[in-house]
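Q: I'm writing up a methods section and want to include an example of the input and output format. Could you take the sequence below and give the corresponding predicted structure tokens, formatted cleanly so I can copy it straight into the document?
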Amino acid sequence: MSTILLPTLKDTLQLGYLLGKHLSSGSTLLLTGNLGAGKTTLVQGIGQGLNISEPVVSPTFTLINEYLDGRLPLYHLDLYRLEPNQVDSIYPEIYWEGIEVEPGITVIEWSEHLAIRPSNYLEIELIAAPSQGRQATFQFWGKNTYDLKFILHFAQAALQKQIKPSQK
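A: Here is the clean output for your methods example:
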């Protein structure tokens, strides 16, 4: 488990951008966090990293947005308005298993509503930290096929931005 600080909204977008650049087809991200924690902002950054041309918006009411014009398809699900017993009716597994859709990156907001989970995924918990912006905690589940060494460099750069010159 790794945790990094995201002092600004721009840092959350940048983390998403890097995820979009580095994640491979078949990657599944399960996002948790309170309202306003930055889940949709992170997904917008992923869309930028995938070179998706259309705006990435929250699928709170549509439940699923598919973006097919980037480096890889992005499947963005938002389960906020669903009870766990309702989630099965949208068949989220077709996205992470690549059934009936081209394999891509699947990102699920409010993933705690899932009744079943993929066998391999990266869980990212976003927490609003009032004095520090946000923090993101990463945990791998199943077989870790994610090469996210870039996160260490990102975390170091974010930390350096927080250290004022007189504190070095």
